[in-house]
Amino acid sequence: MPRIHLPDPIITFRASPKDDDQSRSIQYLPLTESKMLCADQSGRTFLFDAETHHVVTMPSLHKPKEKPLSLFIPST
Q: Which residues make Cβ contacts (< 8 Å) with residue 65, sequence separation at least 6?
């Protein structure tokens, strides 16, 4: 049986710890086929473009969000 090998990652994201609590989380919300909005548990956000490998900081959320829901609807 042939094996499937995934390519090496192009970038690694890691959330900063929140205050004294060492728990970390980061949510990825797809915006287009190649762009994702990323938010950590403290509400800090950035935009990642997989095609160009660019990361752009975005304004922080007004307050942290828990368990966000994202829907991606590709264009026709």
A: 27, 39, 43
